[in-house]
What does this fold into?
Amino acid sequence: MNDLAHQLEGLLQPWQPLPWLAPLQQCCRQRLQRWQRDRKCQQYLELLASLPPAPAGLTCDFTGAAVRIGRAGQLDSAAMEALQLALFGLRPWRKGPFELFGLAIESEWASNLKWDRLSAAIAPLQGRRVLDVGSSNGYYLLRMQAASPALALGLEPYATFFHQFCLLQHFACLPRCLSLPLKFEELPEMTGFFDTLFHMGVLYHLRAPLDSLRALRRCLRRGGELVLETLVIPGEQPLTLTPVERYAKMNNVYFLPTVTALQIWLERSGFERVRCIDVSRTTNAEQRRTAWIQTESLEDFLDPADPDRTVEGYPAPRRALLLAEAR
Ligand SMILES: Nc1ncnc2c1ncn2[C@@H]1O[C@H](C[S@+](CC[C@H]([NH3+])C(=O)[O-])CC(=O)[O-])[C@@H](O)[C@H]1O
It folds into this structure.
């Protein structure tokens, strides 16, 4: 637990003193203390403790669709068995794909497709301080490594995904990359610290999206870039849909704007040069059931008689990617 607080301090050493470091460490300590009493988290920690050490000469490849850590044959069969048990115990693997010591993890989402949609359009990440809000198991934090950011910090409040990142980092040992078990709203004010902020797949889960966009603006430096991805509805008007109860079986979806409405939200929250770089319907090639998840997936969320609609009758999932600069 202190380990994470120490890692955070070490990671931020080049920019010390930072008035928000101690409160941020305290938030992490409190979350991990709470998790220590949780049976599922105890199991995750046992799985992580059972992992074999990272072999000498381990290499990673962050440039391909699958993030590769280690090579086939680098671990003996007992070590591979321990690894497989840990990976399976940490299901569902929603984001990916990964390849660990030759073992392919086919995640629910082919997250490489989203990365391909954005990577050429964003400001180059080399030397930048990056925050990824809702980083899940860190797939994008790892893809970013190919561009050598000065810092890649993730936020992931869901225990399963946070511990998946810990497993990956156990082997990858990346010195300028860390995930914190926190929601963005739990952070102390980190005014103007980040150069790039990823906020993908999170906005529709928030009850007060405009307040959140304003808070995101505050932690970017002037001219810093927001990479925003969220569910949208079709149409040109500045309109927003609020599901009566569930959207695609999710009970925590509050606002789905048109791209036009989203652009207005951003402009009214302190951003400029707002541009939409992509709108894509989510397909079965991008989100599907695999052996690495034990839950439903896209095909179960759509109306079998009309795949343009969710089971609740709303427009089927489509996601927009927008870039904007902090004013
Ligand atoms: N307030 C919050 N603060 C931080 N994290 C949050 C919050 N609320 C939810 N999360 C976390 O954000 C992630 C949303 S998934 C996107 C993952 C990745 N970004 C992706 O674009 O593939 C949704 C999707 O499937 O697109 C989950 O891991 C939540 O626990």
Q: What stands out?
A: The chain has one domain: 2-326. DSSP finds ten helices and 15 strands in the chain.
